[in-house]
Amino acid sequence: MKGVGKKMRRPRKKGTPQKYDPTFKGPIYNRGCTDVICCVALFIAIVGYVAVGIIAWTHGDPRKVIYPTDSRGQFCGQKGTPNENKPFLFYFNILKCASPLVLLEFQCPTTQTCVEKCPSRYLTYLQAYTRPQDFEYYKQFCVPGFGESKVKSPTEVLRDGDCPSVLTPSKPLARRCLPAIETHKGVITVGNETTFDDGRGQKRNVSELVEGAKKANVVLEARQLAMRVFEDYTVSWYWILIGLVIAMALSLIFIVLLRFLAGIMIWIMIVMVILVLGYGIFHCYMEYSRLRGEAGSDVSIGDLGFQTDFRVYLHLRQTWLAFMIILCVLELIIILLLIFLRKRILIAIALIKEASRAVGYVMTSLLYPLFTFFLLCLCIAYWASTAVFLSTSNEAIYKVFNDTACVAAGQTCNPETFPTSNVTRLCPDARCQFAFYGGETGYHRALLGLQIYNVFMFFWLANFALALGQVTLAGAFASYYWAIKKPDDLPAFPLFSSFGRALRYHTGSLAFGSLLLAIVQVIRVILEYLDQRLKAAENRFAKFLMTCLKCCFWCLEKFLKFLNRNAYIMIAIYGTNFCTSAKNAFFLLMRNIVRVAVLDKVTDFLFLLGKLLVVGSVGILAFFFFTHRIKIVEDTAPSLNYYWVPILTVIIGSYLIAHGFFSVYGMCVDTLFLCFCEDLERNDGSPERPYFMSPELRDILLKGNAEAGKSEAQEE
Predict the structure, then answer these.
(1) Shortest CA distance to 677 belongs to which of 581, 576, 604, 594?
(2) Are 351 and 599 in contact (CB under 8 A)?
(3) What does the radius of gyration of the chain's CA atoms come to, in whole angstroms?
(4) Torsion over CA of 367, 370, 372 and 373, rounded to 10 degrees?
(5) Are 666 and 607 spatial neighbours (Cβ–Cβ below 8 Å)?
(6) What is the pLDDT of residues 383-394, one digit of tens each?
(7) Disulfide: which of 133, 216, 465, 651 matches 375 by Cβ 3.0-4.6 Å?
(8) Is the bond leading into 487 cis (omega within 30 degrees of zero)?
């Protein structure tokens, strides 16, 4: 039975290895167009995307996001309008903002008008009516045109809602006049008063104003945070740019040194990363110890809840303990990986040295990420502007608001014809005022679909820009590898030649690969949206199913990115279509699966350490600068609402810059590795069939391949 089992065992199919071809000298120049249907589909989709943008820009109005709107749908503070000098929105009765309607329709059921400045004192309409000087002050808070028609009695004015019944001291918040609430020894006051006259003969507690202000503010909290963040950017953008320039300089210096001192730089990088993480652990421990015994420092993050001012968390011992634990885990993981991968790191360093030579002979490759970054900025700018215009292309919707029960309350209305409508006879105190932006036309019903199309095209075009960069770099570095005499046999402009071939022949293949990735990414966005909607549900099975789907599509996206990257290398070399290139690349990697684990992923790990070194160095410098801890430039650092805003911006920007530079090396290593695997199958190192790899690379890689071959034999 044992013999029969061996006899019945079938060999695993991993594709057909490449055969020796004396005419093959690297990237094929005589090639044809591939995946033409996908190229046409991309062109049609772009034309449709431009049409969506034009439609959105025609109907949209971003002012709806920036400026508050009064009860007539007019913008406050907008230049060229009657409200140009009235930037603030005033609520006639802030108490009505405590209604649940605020949370449902994002509007207070009270008259709202644009004013030049917020009221600064308590004053009722009845008091102002008897004093001419106060009455002139009061009229600026009434509806536009008040006092120009026939004179009304105070009772008629308050009945018709022409003026507010009372003014309360207010301060502008997000361009809205909200009560100037203050707390003194635990007592809440507004304008140094604990009670106020509501203008109708009743004394009210200021706590009612607080409740109304809270509900009115529920929609404004995010905008307030955004405004403070924007203010921080306006005063710190110059220093943020300096930090990003420092990150670019560090990345460039590191790459140049890597060209000449690859082995030494890799080990220096490893040691520096360990030291930077070690300093982070030490700093967290010192802050944790310093806060011992301070009042309020032992409060847990869960008890504190969410705070818009993130500086509050830095006064908690639990925050620094969490940071310290995270850094300790990272430090331990890196040290363990270095111990177990020490032999493979030597092999990876040899591959990085060869990549350094290739980058040295194709120096323009270091500048190519700037072009990719430019294309991505165009995609992001077009997507963001189109999204804003689409979201603001709704029309002003007016609804009936009433203080008492009314059958017409909540119905849509027309403010021009409302005074003569039946609603005013049914509900004498009803008002027709602006509610929100919406619409019932075919265009407005299609807005959700247009937004989804906008997101889909953003992913497609962004992935296409990245794919174009990968194919271009792969073609240039493949030209280096397959040159017998390096660099004499290199073409004159390998990067530009590769870029031209990619656009001329393989736009369709790039569109195909990026389309597959875009579909998966859009599905992931939809799943995230559904997951947010299901959070309030108690259905455990639905939550479990959603988690499984999110995990599966995350894995699928990672696999597609890996497959696309290697498929693009094969496209750059052989000029085949996407499916053929993906199949050949996949089977080539499967035939060298141990080598992939030994070389390719170890180099990715080393490049990740390089990115962390750049980001960590610039991040620590930004932290000390923006927190005024560098004595020399202590007075130069700007005063900020949230110092984490520029620090996070510098850290994220530094990572993107470092990733851009190291991505060139990463693509170079992947291309050389795939070419190396092809070289082993095509040639045997004899004078008739010599290897194309350099002697230095051959000596160390073939030694590593001997070990890999033993591992593969054991698997068999």
Answers:
(1) 594
(2) yes
(3) 33
(4) 160
(5) yes
(6) 988 888 887 776
(7) 465
(8) yes
User: Are 683 and 563 contained in the same domain?
Assistant: yes
Q: What is the pLDDT of residues 252-283, one digit of tens each?
A: 888 777 777 777 877 887 888 888 888 889 98
Residues 259 and 164 in one domain: no
By residue count, the chain amounts to 716
The DSSP result for 13-58, as a single string, is P--PPPPP-TT--SS-SS-----HHHHHHHHHHHHHHHHHHHHHHH
- The reply to whether 575 and 648 lie within a common domain is yes
* Distance between start and end Cα atoms, the chain: 19
**What are 179-197's pLDDT values in tens digits?**
776 655 444 555 556 565 5
Same domain? 85 vs 44:
no
Residues 339 and 471 in one domain: yes
Instruction: Pick the closest to residue 669 from 368, 357, 364 (CA basis).
Output: 357
What Cα–Cα distance (Å) separates residue 11 from each residue in 2, 7, 135, 584, 715?
17, 11, 97, 18, 12
pLDDT digits (tens, 9 = 90+) for 41-60: 999 999 999 999 998 888 87
- 167 lies in some domain: yes
Structure tokens at 679: 């070289």
Same domain, yes or no: 530 and 451:
yes
**Domain that residue 497 falls in:** 36-55+224-388+446-709
Residues 254 and 374 in one domain: yes
Q: What is the dihedral of CA 353, 356, 360, 366, to 10 degrees?
A: 180
Contact indicator for 634, 324 with CB cutoff of 8 Å: no
Q: Is 609 contained in some domain?
A: yes
Longest dimension (CA), the chain: 113
Looking at 72-176, list the stretches that DSSP marks H as alpha helix, in order from N- to C-terminal side: 101-105, 125-129, 132-139, 154-160
Contact 657, 247 (CB under 8 A): yes
Extract the residue ranges of the chain whose pLDDT is less than 50.
1-12, 99-106, 185-187, 212-213, 215-220, 708-716
Return the bridge partners of 400, or none: 432
> Which one, of 430, 685, 513, lies nearest residue 41 by Cα?
513
pLDDT at res. 218: 45
Amino acid at 470: Q
Is 238 domain-assigned?
yes
* Cβ contact 190:206 at 8 Å: yes
The encoded tokens of residue 516 equal: 């597959």
Predicted structure pTM score: 0.70
